[in-house]
Amino acid sequence: MANTPKAAGLNIGNVQKALEMQIADLRGEIGKINNSIEERGARLAREAIETASARASRAAKRLGTQTQSMSEVARGTSGAVTLVFGAAALLCFTIGVAVGMRINSPGRRNYWG
Predict the structure, then answer these.
(1) What is the DSSP letter of 77?
(2) Rounded to whole angstroms, how far apart are CA atoms 26 and 19?
(3) What is the Rg, in whole angstroms, of the alpha carbon atoms belonging to the chain?
(4) What tens digit of pLDDT does each residue of 55-96 get?
(5) 32 neighbors 38 (Cβ within 8 angstroms)
(6) Taking a C-beta distance cutoff of 8 angstroms, is the pair 52, 59 a contact?
(7) End-to-end alpha-carbon separation of the chain, Å?
(8) SS3 state of residue 95
(9) How far apart are CA 25 and CA 3, in angstroms?
(10) Backbone angles phi and psi of 28, in degrees to 5
């Protein structure tokens, strides 16, 4: 038996130190990976915000243009627009009255026929 307990103890100590060094190296690598992920995430978030901002700006410009076009059409044909809105309001009022009478009627009578 060439290995004595003392020699075995020295080998275990060396192995333990080597493992501790490897663990320290792995922790350093994990730190680098975390920093890399953080930088990439920040870059992607910045790009997403810039893209969303550009899209919102384009949509707002389009909406403004469409609103202006609708306003010009409404000014040019104000009588027709008033007539359409008035007819729609009258139709909705009539439907509302009919539904209200139907809901409040005792039984299943129809007031219109």
Answers:
(1) T
(2) 10
(3) 40
(4) 999 998 888 888 888 888 777 787 888 888 999 999 999 999
(5) no
(6) no
(7) 115
(8) helix
(9) 31
(10) -65, -40
